[in-house]
Amino acid sequence: MPIDVRVEDADLTGFSQPAKDALEKASQEFLHSVIAEANRLESSHNTGKGPPEVTQAMVSDAVVIQKRSVNQRKVPLYIKLLRILSAVLATASGFMYDADRLQSPIYMLVFIGCITATILLTTLSTMLE
Is residue 86 part of a domain? Predict the structure, then answer.
């Protein structure tokens, strides 16, 4: 028996026809993803040779997994590089701290520049995400 999902017209007030078409396509894709995930969960639970049986719990778990995977964004490479550079500069700042060498004005400027760059990169990577 096929499952037919219907949405009331009152819920779609203000939706243009292209928006309704996009909603229908997105909901079908989500349903197919949930079905595929539920089947995957069932096959991992069914170790015997019996017929497959997808339970309500498996469908609920599949919905949670799909919702979680939809909400996750892939972090761009440049943000990862900013974080790595920020960590490296923070570590370098820690190694550079030497009370005797900080008496030199040039060393002090390099040290302050390293700390400033660390703060800026950390702030920038946080704001961009």
Answer: yes
Q: Of the candidates 25, 51, 71, which is a domain's last residue?
A: 71
Q: Which residues touch 34 (CB under 8 Å, ≥6 apart)? A: 59, 62, 63, 66
Residue among 83, 41, 47 at smallest CA distance from 63: 41
- Total-model pTM: 0.52
Q: Are 90 and 111 in contact (CB under 8 A)?
A: no
Q: What is the DSSP string of 5-44?
A: ----GGGGTT--HHHHHHHHHHHHHHHHHHHHHHHHHHHH
**Is the Cβ–Cβ distance between 54 and 39 less than 8 Å?**
yes
Q: Which of 71, 90, 108 is the last residue of a domain?
A: 71
- For residue range 94-121, list pLDDT tens digits in order: 999 999 999 999 999 999 999 999 999 9
pLDDT in tens, 31-69: 888 889 888 888 888 777 778 888 888 888 888 888 877
Give the number of domains in the chain: 2
Residue range(s) defining the domain that contains residue 108: 77-128
* 15 and 53 share one domain: yes
